[in-house]
Amino acid sequence: MSAPLGVAVVGAGFMGGVHAEVLAAHPRAQLVAVCDLDQRAAQELAGRFAVPTVTDDLDRVLADDRVGLVVVTTPNALHADQAARALRAGRHVLVEKPLALTPDEIHGLLRLATERGLVLAHGSNFVQSPKFRRVRELVADAEAFGTPHLARVVVRNAGPDSGWCLDPALAGGGVLLDLGCHAVEICRWLLGGAEVRAVTARSQRVRRPDGPVEDQAVLLLEFADGALGQCDISWACPGGEEITTEVLGTTGRAGADLWTGMGVDAFSERGFASVWEPNKGWVRPEWEWVRASGYVHQDHAVVEAVLDSVPLPHSPAEAWVSSRILAAAEESAATGRTVELTSTPNGLPLPDAVPGGDRVH
Fold first, then answer.
1. Which residues form the Gfo/Idh/MocA-like oxidoreductase N-terminal domain (predicted)?
2. Which residues 6+ apart lie within 8 Å of 353 measured at CB?
3. Model pLDDT for residues 99-126, shown as the tens digit of each residue
4. Active site amino acids
5. Residue of 194, 186, 195 whose CA lies nearest to 233
6. For residue 288, what pLDDT is reported?
7. Which of 70, 173, 243, 281 has the fewest Cβ atoms nearer than 10 Å?
8. Residue 239 has pLDDT above 70, yes or no
9. Long-range contacts, 254-257 (Cβ 8 Å, 24+)
10. Interstrand relation of 339-340 and 29-35 (parallel, antiparallel or unpaired)
């Protein structure tokens, strides 16, 4: 048996704790370091999982031969630099969303990982959710579902817990970046990675009309095959978090609410081949077991990619595509116009392959 994968968590906030909890329970991973400028937070996180090294110095972490994987969970504006430093130090990297602030920054990280033969993974936990993966499987059943023509993704909550999320210098944007990266990625993924040709967006400042960033937005995605995608995102949703998906096809529909119920809702005029009877009309398979938001599946896949050279189930190149779409959404929201996307913006072709990940669709 190979030695466990040594993991360093950079950023001891809420998301650092989520990844630490998942990876500490993995039989082939071992937490060896926690790094944060807030030493109290770092000590507290390290104490929960008996992590031996606590530091505020990223260079010390990257010089530690025990560290094979660096998990970056710091404020958004720090992601690109810290991930690049880790890759240059020969470390595999998992970056909490967003992978970076701009398509160009993400492209640079993809190139760096490709050149160095390292795994680069990004926070895409909701596409690892068993509920949403099941929805995607049902949508792919063309005999029962027909041709998908509309996808709707809702990602809403009552607002961020961390104050830095409202500081553009640290967050890089508002709800468009924070929740939009999830919604756009889920929407494309549900439709099989379809190409987006145009984006129309509208944004609002609901709770803080004079605030520095938007807290609510709606995006309309026009796909190359004629399908439409709607992304509804908000930090101004009373009552807590809501994350739902729905896809309509010519002969069926399927969707799921991440936090309500144990299964998915599906309808087919013809009958699904892959669900239990009854398989026509409305199907609500409560027997489908759910492991909530997908963090366990996501982080376990990263460990397998590093130790076993198994391709990631979701390529980091998808973050580059999502970043382009979100940049277009920001432009559309600012100008009130629909923004068309070119295939290779800024003359930057996507790397042919990313170690540990499939090529982007």
1. 6-122
2. 114, 359
3. 999 999 999 999 999 999 999 999 999 9
4. 97
5. 186
6. 37
7. 281
8. yes
9. 254/135, 254/138, 254/139, 254/145, 255/135, 255/152, 256/131, 256/132, 256/134, 256/135
10. unpaired
pLDDT in tens, 244-256: 999 999 999 999 9
How many CA atoms does the CB half-sphere of 79 hold within 13 Å? 27
Q: Which DSSP letter does residue 180 get?
A: H
Let me know: does 207 contact 235? Beta carbons within 8 Å. Answer: yes
The per-residue DSSP string of 117-169 comes to T--EEE--GGGG-HHHHHHHHHHT-HHHH--EEEEEEEEE-S--SSGGGG-HH
In this prediction, residue 203 carries a pLDDT of 98
The CA distance from 350 to 71, in Å, is 24
DSSP string, 258-306: TTSSSS-EEEESS--SSSPSP-SEEE--TT----TTSHHHHHHHHHHHH
* CB distance 155 to 129 below 8 Å: no
When mean pLDDT is compared across 158-167, 195-204, 322-331, the lowest value belongs to: 158-167
The pTM for the full model equals: 0.90
Order of strands, edge to edge, in the sheet holding 228-234?
281-283, 265-268, 252-257, 242-249, 148-156, 228-234, 216-223, 196-204, 339-340
pLDDT value, residue 115 = 96
Amino acid, single-letter form, for residue 160: P
Q: Domain boundaries in the chain?
A: 129-295
Compute the distance between CA of residue 205 and CA of residue 220 in angstroms, rounded to an integer: 19
| Cβ–Cβ < 8 Å for 124, 295 | no
- Please give the C-alpha separations between residue 195 and each of 133, 207, 229, in angstroms, as whole numbers: 19, 34, 11
Long-range contacts of 338-345 (CB under 8 A, 24+ apart): 338/198, 338/199, 338/200, 338/222, 339/198, 339/199, 339/200, 340/197, 340/198, 341/196, 341/197, 341/198, 341/199, 345/103
Grouping H, G, I as helix, E, B as strand and the rest as coil, residue 195 is coil
Tokens of 89: 């130090």
Q: What angle do CA 202, 208, 209 make, to 5 degrees?
A: 60
- Looking at residue 325, its amino acid is I
Comparing C-alpha atoms, which of 3, 54, 8 is closest to residue 31?
Answer: 8
